[in-house]
Each structure stands twice: as structure tokens, then as C-alpha cells.
Write a structure and sequence with these properties.
This protein is an alpha+beta fold. The chain folds into two domains: 78 residues, Glutaredoxin, CATH 3.40.30.10; 105 residues, Glutathione S-transferase Yfyf (Class Pi), Chain A, domain 2, CATH 1.20.1050. It is 56% helix and 7% strand. The chain has a four-stranded mixed sheet with strand order 2-1-3-4, with helices on one face. Helix 1 crosses helix 7, helix 5 runs parallel beside helix 7 and helix 7 packs across helix 8. The longest helix has 28 residues. This is Glutathione S-transferase family protein. InterPro entries: Glutathione-S-Trfase_C-like (IPR010987), Glutathione-S-Trfase_C_sf (IPR036282), Glutathione_S-Trfase (IPR040079), Glutathione_S-Trfase_N (IPR004045), GST_C (IPR004046), Thioredoxin-like_sf (IPR036249). It holds the Pfam family GST_C. It comes from SAR86 cluster bacterium.
Length: 201
């Protein structure tokens, strides 16, 4: 199994999951953006995006899907829920909300504050999508009331997926307006040995 990774990119979700599960894998560290810095990468992932996970004949390019795939293929594991579990629907909803709802607005903030040349940066886009992110983050704050994790006292790949989105906000300076439950949640996640190992790779 091989994971193509850029430091602190969405590939951290898959890398963190691999570390939590203790699976064997090969890590290919790349400079961002890999479509420009990694020769031959477009032959592996035609979109040129990161991450890419190759497991035998299976190739995945969506980080939250990787989390679910690893938990289901290489389980059973406490990180994943079976379809018969009463919280399965809630679990899946968080897993996919992590990227479509919580990471997406931050990618626009990142693009228009750091990645685009100065003359192409658009402060209004940054302001609008920063507010979008905060408004969506309220669901996390509310879900964590009286809970350590999104599903209560059990840590799952949904926490890895959402936790990455919350962690990304730190690099963008968005954590200054995090509410107490979200701040405490992020601290718990970042204290996990598997998270620390993944970040050190």
C-alpha cells in the first residue's frame, strides 16, 4: 500500500488513519503542488491532486473515502462503524461533511491568501469563505457539547476527517475564533500519538 502525501495536506487524514490502525504502508512525500513538482504523478492521479492511495489494484484520491476504505477493508476496528450500528448514519454524515462542508471553504481562503500571486488575491472571497467556514463549524461545536468525540466517547475515522478540517484552520489563523468545545476537541486530537507520528512523517 502506497500513500502519496504533502505535509499537512488532506493526505494527513489517510496517514493518520494508517498510523491509528498500525498498518504497513509506503509513504511518498512530495512538495506541493505535486502535479508540478512530482514527475509522473499525473500518470498515477490524472487530476494531479493530493492525496492518492494505491492499494493493489485500487486507487483512491478522496481523503475521507480513504479513511472509510481503510477502516472497512482492514478492520474490524473501533475506528469504523458497521452499517448495523445505530450511529452509522451520523458517522457517515460527519465523515463526508468533513471535506465538502468544512474543508472546502478553507481551501478558498488558502488559495486567495497564499497560493495566488498578489495581484490575483481577492480579500472579499477570503472574508466570505472565512465566514462560511465559521457558520458550518457551529455544527461541530454543538455536537461536542458534553462529548469528547463526535459520536460520544468513541474515537472514529469521522473524528480524523473532521479533525483535519479543524486542524487546517490553525494554519490559516482561523482558530482564533474557535469556540471552547472545538478548541478542546482539537487539543485532544492533536495529543493522540498516531496524530503526532503522522505529522512527523
Amino acid at each position: 500500500m502506497k500513500l502519496y502525501h504533502c505535509k499537512d495536506a488532506r493526505s494527513l487524514r489517510a496517514l493518520w488513519t494508517l498510523e491509528e490502525m498500525g498498518l504497513d504502508y509506503e509513504l511518498v512525500n512530495m512538495e506541493f503542488p505535486p502535479r508540478l513538482t512530482q514527475p509522473g504523478y499525473l500518470d498515477i492521479n490524472s487530476m494531479g491532486t493530493v492525496p492518492t492511495l494505491v492499494d493493489g489494484t485500487v486507487t483512491l484520491t478522496e481523503s475521507s473515502a480513504m479513511c472509510q476504505y481503510l477502516a472497512e477493508k482492514y478492520g474490524p476496528t473501533e475506528l469504523g462503524l458497521d452499517v448495523s450500528d445505530p450511529q452509522y448514519g451520523e458517522y457517515l454524515n460527519w465523515l463526508y461533511r468533513s471535506d465538502a462542508t468544512l474543508t472546502f471553504p478553507q481551501t478558498l481562503v488558502l488559495r486567495y491568501t497564499r497560493l495566488e500571486p498578489e495581484e490575483r488575491r481577492v480579500p472579499q472571497v477570503v472574508a466570505d469563505y472565512t465566514q462560511w467556514y465559521y457558520s458550518r463549524l457551529r455544527s461541530v461545536e454543538m455536537a461536542l457539547e458534553g462529548r469528547d468525540y463526535l459520536l460520544g466517547d468513541r474515537f472514529t475515522v469521522a473524528d480524523i476527517a473532521v479533525g483535519y478540517a479543524v486542524f487546517l484552520g490553525v494554519s490559516l489563523g482561523l482558530d482564533e475564533k474557535y469556540k471552547p468545545n472545538t478548541t478542546a476537541y482539537l487539543a485532544r486530537l492533536m495529543a493522540r500519538p498516531a496524530f503526532q507520528r503522522a505529522r512527523a512523517k
